[in-house]
Design a protein that fits this description.
192 residues, 21% strand, single chain, globular, seven-stranded mixed sheet
Length: 192
């Protein structure tokens, strides 16, 4: 039997963070749950998960309930006694180097200064997993980066971010069935 396909949406717990740029990973897995799995999230010790199948494959959606910079702490509990392959783990997070409306699918690489990715790489002991970056853009000159990603984007910007999320959700069945590279052409195209 094939190992589950894990999709981890990064974000911070709590209502005050729900609509912020830093929580686009949570927006993504919540949309996958409602669109493809029709399953609710259930809380575990350090994360909330929703389970189901897409294209006959078991899919586990994860929202870490730790704060962003401790996102990797869940993996010592989540992947215990389970066989998994790097391309069966997709982490979805915000990326300030991409403008709103654009995303990037990538296999491996560094953490690009993202504390959630840094924590995951540290806990897994490897950077070898798939990432989907959702563009949120850079803050205006003089605005603190942390304040920017922890703020709610204006309506037009949020709509573009949501387009990027929906693009990933739409192409997720292909990502599960096909090679990662085959989906990059669509997801990595520049839209704005």
């Amino acid at each position: 039997m094939a190992p589950p396909y894990y999709i981890v949406g990064l974000g911070n717990p709590g209502r005050r963070y729900a609509l912020t740029r830093h929580n686009v990973g949570w927006w993504t897995v919540e949309r996958i749950a409602s669109t493809h799995l029709h399953a609710p999230f259930k809380e575990k010790a350090l994360w909330a998960e929703a389970r189901g199948t897409i294209k006959g494959r078991e899919v586990v959606l994860i929202k870490p309930l730790t704060y962003m910079n401790r996102s990797g702490a869940i993996f010592s509990h989540l992947l215990v006694d389970r066989t998994w392959l790097p391309w069966h783990l997709v982490v979805v997070c915000d990326q300030v180097d991409l403008t709103p409306g654009n995303g990037r699918l990538r296999i491996g690489g560094g953490h690009a200064g993202h504390n959630g990715l840094k924590s995951i790489i540290q806990h897994l002991g490897s950077p070898d997993f798939v990432r989907y970056y959702v563009g949120v853009g850079r803050p205006p000159e003089g605005e603190d980066l942390a304040d920017y990603v922890l703020s709610v984007p204006p309506r037009e910007e949020r709509e573009r971010i949501e387009e990027t999320v929906l693009r990933f959700v739409e192409h997720l069945p292909r990502l599960i069935e096909e090679e990662v590279e085959s989906v990059m052409e669509v997801l990595n195209r520049r839209y704005y």
